[in-house]
Task: structure prediction
Amino acid sequence: MTHSRSASTLAAPHMAITGTNNGNNVSWMEKVSNEQYSNN
Result:
């Protein structure tokens, strides 16, 4: 079995553990389109 971003039939839970900086733990950057995501 190989890992693929397009494997829509498999479920994989993901968890992220982060620290905080000035009370914030996530800084979202700009949104990307599906085309931009799939080209990487």
